[in-house]
Write a structure and sequence with these properties.
This protein has two helices and three strands, in the order ββαβα. Strands 1-2-3 form a three-stranded mixed beta sheet, with helices on one face.
Length: 129
Amino acid sequence: MRFSFSNAAATDRGHPHTISLKLRDLNQLFNSMDPSPFIEKDLDDDAEEFIVSWAQEFPPKAPIKLRIYLDQWPAEDPQELIRTAVHNHFSHRAKITNLEFKRLLRQAAPVFSSDCCSWLLVYSSARCC
């Protein structure tokens, strides 16, 4: 599997931030151990790490284009399948990350409020004297 990165502003003015992946075939994009249909499959760990690491290099609200080059083109046009599968994968990942973040906030809230109350008591006591 070979991954590459390009900033293709000159060739694709609508998407100045482009991440390119060059693969032998479509199967390299997906986790081979996942028995789900393609549109529900997890991405290959290396492919996901490559995409995420480059996406984090761009400004948070910047549009990003993912361009995938296949050496072996399947019989049916895979563009919509890839688009849907990648969208589903990262949408699911975002939901999981959001749930985890909310769980951490719920766990931290009592500790944080307790620490803040302690700090306020210490601070107000110090100011009184």
